[in-house]
Design a protein that fits this description.
Layout lengths: L1 H5 L2 H23 L6 H42 E2 L3 H7 L8 H11 L5 H8 L11 H12 L1 H13 L2 H9 L4 H30 L2 H6 L4 H11 L3 H26 L15 E2 L2 H37 L2 H34 L3 H10 L7 H18 L1 H6 L12 H27 L2 H8 L4 H12 L1 H17 L2 H6 L7 H10 L7 H27 L1
Parallel strand pairs: 1-2
Helix pairs in contact: 2-15, 2-16, 2-17, 3-7, 3-8, 3-10, 3-13, 3-14, 5-7, 5-14, 8-10, 9-10, 10-13, 12-13, 13-17, 14-25, 15-19, 15-22, 17-19, 19-22, 20-21, 22-25, 24-25
Length: 537
């Protein structure tokens, strides 16, 4: 009787997902049982320390730069009134539409010996060349394209903080520097750390930037071991070390947060202060620098070279690539939302510790870098195909790898990786609307599925739209998973851009890159202006 009480549509879907995720991750442990190869021994003795060191410094520099860009921007648009403040309030999110690897190709070309920046410097007598294709340059690229995560989380936190706290501090004649150190930064810390953690996870997930800049970090090493050396065992062991690296970062954040409680006090509407003339100059520089280099310059560059090369790249192949990208992104995003909706509903009402821990486990996907997840998913599907060979033969199918390298495998990987994003957005929306309407529907005898579609989904509309946009943008931009798991001769805009860059055809990559960026811009514009309209109403 107790088992029947826990088994319903929400728990069944969640258990199925849990089993699939568990089996996928068991591939990692299975990979460690075999004998270590010569390639792994060489990597461990001569290269592993460099991978760890480079990954650490890349994450450190990216975290620092993105924290500064995002926090200062959020602080200015929240606490001060100045011309174009509302414009910056949504435009600062636009660099999120520019994939980091596209920005890397652009700035790598601009600062190359024949690039526009190097030619301008030589024109004014400066012979030395600025080397952006380095670990420091890669961290700046990541910070300029990923700081919106920090900007959004910090701004949301600052908007919820009571204005009376800061007014009381000013009445007590507390200096601005002390207000920052004692009030602003401590209260903003959870949001700041959450945003920076997202930036760090995205940085570790990247392959395009580090490959193009030849920065030897974990994602680079995994691809190198698998495709250049052909050693899956070495790739699995590197994946395990990388997971430990990520786990340490997450644990450090949770240890620092332990025993700290943060309360949000709602007060009257915030009265923004006007900026002085000197402060306006600083404010526009602080807001303009990341927006200019993270979005405006890349878009101008892509637009210019798209006009020069469209005769070569605007063809039916680009149309197929665009259709491929949009279709698989929509399908994967919708399935992800569907699963996240069921998991979030189980999380709302279950009192079972097992289910709570199970949900925590299946929503860890976003913390797993794409290169690692690609290795595990690929091994899982190869094993599944091997077990299904008798079934294939029964239906007259001669192939042994039917599911492997199929769209099913790629979609499965997308769902595993981005389920966390969808779940977090749906869960936060559920927390705002509360459980009373759902419980009332249950009391009136309505089933769980009918209540979900007729009561919950209409109230979750805004949260579902936001979750769809966030997941959709990430799927469209995703490179490591798509590069490894896509079917043969199946390209998306991300892989097409990567192919052009790999062939040193940076200018020809401009049009597909511009299309990819345009998709992100449209989605970001729609969601930000939807929120603005709601506030006006």
């Amino acid at each position: 009787m107790r088992l029947r009480q826990h088994l319903h549509s929400f728990s069944i879907v969640s258990i199925i997902v849990f089993v699939l995720v568990l089996v996928v991750f068991l591939q990692l442990f299975a990979g460690f049982t075999g004998e270590a190869s010569d390639a792994w021994i060489h990597i461990k003795e001569y290269l592993l320390f460099d991978y760890i060191k480079n990954s650490f410094f890349l994450v450190l520099f990216t975290a620092l730069f993105s924290a500064v860009f995002g926090f200062v921007g959020a602080y200015l648009v929240t606490f001060y009134e100045f011309p174009f403040r509302k414009f910056f309030g949504w435009a600062m999110i636009l660099p999120l539409a520019v994939p980091s690897y596209i920005a890397a190709y652009i700035y790598g070309d601009m600062f190359s010996y024949t690039g526009i920046v190097s030619r301008l410097l030589r024109g004014i007598g400066i012979v030395s060349q600025i080397d952006v294709m380095s670990l420091f340059g890669a961290s700046m690229i990541f910070a300029l394209t990923l700081y919106p995560y920090v900007f959004m989380t910090v701004r949301s936190s600052l908007n919820k903080q009571s204005n009376e706290i800061y007014e009381s501090a000013r009445l007590l004649k507390v200096s601005k520097s002390k207000i920052w150190r004692k009030i602003l930064l401590p209260l903003s810390r959870p949001a700041l750390v959450a945003g920076v953690l997202l930036v760090v996870l995205e940085t570790l997930n990247d392959y395009g930037v580090v490959k193009y800049f030849n920065v030897r970090v974990f994602s680079f090493a995994i691809f190198d071991a698998w495709f250049r050396l052909g050693d899956v065992g070495a790739a699995i062991r590197l994946s395990g070390v990388m997971l430990i690296f990520v786990f340490v970062i997450v644990v450090i954040e949770r240890v620092l947060r332990r025993n700290k409680v943060y309360y949000t006090l709602q007060g009257r509407k915030r009265l923004r202060k006007a900026l002085s003339t000197k402060a306006k100059v600083f404010g526009y520089m602080a807001l303009g620098f990341p927006l200019m280099f993270g979005f405006i310059i890349p878009v101008i560059y892509l637009s210019y070279y798209s006009l020069l090369t469209y005769s070569k790249t605007l063809d039916m192949e680009l149309l197929y690539v665009t259709v491929n990208t949009l279709s698989i992104s929509v399908v994967a995003t919708l399935i992800t939302l569907f699963i996240a909706l069921f998991v979030a509903n189980l999380d709302r009402f279950t009192t079972s510790k097992f289910f709570k821990r199970m949900i925590n486990f299946i929503t860890l996907g976003y913390a797993i870098p794409g290169a690692v997840l690609a290795v595990l998913v690929s091994l899982f599907f190869i094993g599944m195909d091997r077990d299904l060979v008798p079934l294939y033969q029964l239906f007259g199918v001669d192939k042994t790898l039917v599911l492997t390298r199929s769209l099913a495998m790629l979609s499965f990987a997308y769902i595993l990786r981005f389920l966390t994003l969808a779940f977090n957005n749906i869960e936060s929306t559920y927390q705002k609307i509360g459980p009373s309407y759902t419980e009332a529907s249950y009391t009136l005898g309505q089933g769980k599925l009918k209540t979900l579609w007729s009561v919950d989904v209409p109230m979750l509309k805004d949260g579902l739209i936001f979750a769809f946009v966030i997941v959709f943008i990430d799927v469209v931009k995703e490179l490591p998973l798509t590069l490894i798991l896509r079917p043969t001769n199946y390209d998306t805009m991300a892989t097409k851009v990567y192919q052009y860059a790999s062939d040193e055809m940076i200018h020809e990559a401009s049009l597909p890159s511009l299309l990819l960026v345009s998709v992100g811009v449209i989605m970001i514009y729609l969601i930000t202006h939807r929120k603005l309209k709601k506030r006006v109403k």
